[in-house]
Amino acid sequence: MYDRSYTIGDDQLKNNHYQNDIQYTLQMCQWLLKLIGIWPLLNNHTSRLEQLLSIVLMITCYSSIFFIILPSGHHFFFVEKNLYMKMKMLGPVSFCVFATVKYSYLARKGAFLQRCIRQLKNDWKRVEDPSMKMLGPVSFCVFATIKYSYLALKGAFLQSCIRQLRNDWKRVQDPSHRAIMLKYAGVSRKLITVCAVFIYTGGMSYHTVAQFLSKERTRENYTVRPLAYIGYDPFFDTQSSPTYEIVFLLHCFAAMIMYSITTVAYGLAAVFVTHVCGQIQIQIARLQNLVESKDRDLFSVIVHDHAETLKILRFSKNIEDALYQICLTEIVECTINMCMLEYYCLVEWANSDLIATLTYMTLLISFTFNIFIFCYIGELLSEQCSEIGTVSYEIDWYNLPAKEAYDLILLISISQYPPKLTAGKIIELSLNTFSSVAKTSLVYLNLLQTVADW
After folding, report:
1. Per-position DSSP letters for 33-75, written without gaps between them
2. DSSP readout, 277-301?
3. Contact present, 246 and 88 (Cβ < 8 Å)
4. 3-state class of 221 per DSSP?
5. Labelling 120: which of 188, 246, 338, 425 has CA 20 to 30 A away?
6. In 3D, which of 359, 349, 348, 18 has the Cα closest to residue 171?
7. Which UniProt keywords apply (predicted)?
8. At 427, is the secondary structure helix, strand, or coil?
């Protein structure tokens, strides 16, 4: 049945800190989404100039990535005959391909993600701090002019997530609840920061430092000007100036786009799931204060109507719909790249190439940590939702009127089937999945070594 009480006042502003809070929550993802042109999918208010700039940005991003994929793919399939060189090319080229897939998913799934962000913003709007009412509204960070509106009709899901996120921030009335939400928003920012540091450090080291300091550059009797991706020789001479400099800069530019896409994928998952965890902790705090509270309305909102719990479940469903394809891509990509990077580390270590070994080790740590983040937040989502049932059982429910205590059974029943974050609606993201991915990469490493030796 449609719950009218749930939708009334969703946009009511009760949190004077709303703009500052939502900026704190979404700022890091917003920066990266603007960089790759996805953020306008989350905003319905875009001018024609912004739409035009967004289309240009999209073409630029895809062109930069395909500038690597097409020549490298041609070289891999039709030119290169050495098996080791093919395997060495497979890692970075596959990363480019998966980055393109993730970029396309982000653009296509904007509608799901916007729903999640809308929920997050609504939660922030509901916070009310009486001591700050006289200070007026907090200034909001102005959106950048370059916004992405291409395929805007497909951005409905992402828009819904964002709208719900905003409404959650608007409607929280207790300062202690706002503190809980800020705590989990801080967790997501830390996860995004660590993820970005690893992926940008390892990735840009591969594109710059490793190319100039690796021993491979001095294997021939003549000086070779190195590039991260090869395969351009049939089309033009990359060793001459300024062709080399242009190609090198384009590689670095495309790398920044790809690493931003990867970081955004982890960032969106971290922001949305930690926001759900914050909402669950607020529900748990209300349940724990239920018996001592004299406010029967509080009880009816939490237990009898179950509006807040249903809202969390809807939000979790939107997150799953928005991210399940990206999660599947990440699982496949990380399994392949972890296997390849392990192999690269062994080969370069045998070649006594310290710079290349350290670069590949950094990338291996990065991919391992990033897939761990995905699996960890999936585990966190299930655990937090299950905790509602445990708390419902552990409170002094026997001190409540019998009719009202019976209503707790529904919360306990719902918690037995917590929402799950999955990869392609096939693989449940959990710490067990992370263990399986790590083991699978080692199995494929043994297979790869056997094939290479053969």
Report:
1. HHHHT-GGGG-S---HHHHHHHHHHHHHHHHHHHHHHHHHHHI
2. HHHHHHHHHHHHTTTT---HHHHII
3. no
4. coil
5. 425
6. 18
7. Cell membrane, Membrane, Olfaction, Receptor, Sensory transduction, Transducer, Transmembrane, Transmembrane helix
8. strand
**Residue 263: CB partners within 8 Å, gap ≥ 6?**
32, 192, 195, 196, 199, 200
Residue 152: which of 111, 122, 116, 120 has the closest Cα?
111
CA-wise closest residue to 270 among 215, 335, 189: 189
Digit-coded pLDDT (tens) for 75-113: 777 777 777 677 777 777 777 777 777 777 677 666 666
Contacts of 16 by beta carbon, 8 Å cutoff, 6+ apart: 128, 129, 132, 133, 135, 136, 137, 138
Give 253's contacts (C-beta < 8 A, 6+ positions apart).
64
Q: Cα separation of 123 and 17, whole Å?
A: 12
CA distance 101 to 99: 5
Q: Find the range with the poorest average confidence among 5-9, 142-146, 185-189.
A: 142-146
Q: Considering Cα of 46, then 52, then 58, then 60, what sign does the dihedral take?
A: negative
Q: What is the mean pLDDT of the segment spanning 260-288?
A: 82
Q: Please measure the distance between the N-terminal and C-terminal CA atoms of the chain and give it in whole angstroms.
A: 64
- In sequence order, the β-bridge partners of residue 115 are 162
- Nearest residue to 15 (alpha-carbon basis) of 164, 172, 140: 172
Residues 6+ apart with CB under 8 A from 410: 303, 306
The two most distant CA atoms of the chain are separated, in Å, by 88
pLDDT bucket at 56, cuts 50 / 70 / 90: confident
* Residue spans per domain, the chain: 17-99+131-453
- Token match 């960032």: residue? 267
Residue bearing tokens 């940590």: 369
> In sequence order, what DSSP letters do the residues of 298-343 get, joined into one string?
HHIIIIIS-HHHHHHHHHHHHHHHHHHHHHHHHHHHHHHHHHHHHH
- Asked if 232 contacts 374 with a C-beta cutoff of 8 angstroms, the reply is no
Q: Is the pLDDT of residue 396 over 50?
A: yes
Q: What is the pTM of this model?
A: 0.73
Q: Measured between alpha carbons, how far is 192 from 184 in angstroms, rounded to an integer?
A: 13
Whether 95 and 72 have beta carbons less than 8 Å apart is answered as: no
Residue ranges in 139-242 assigned as alpha helix (H): 156-171, 175-207, 209-213
DSSP H helices in 80-174: 83-108, 110-125, 156-171
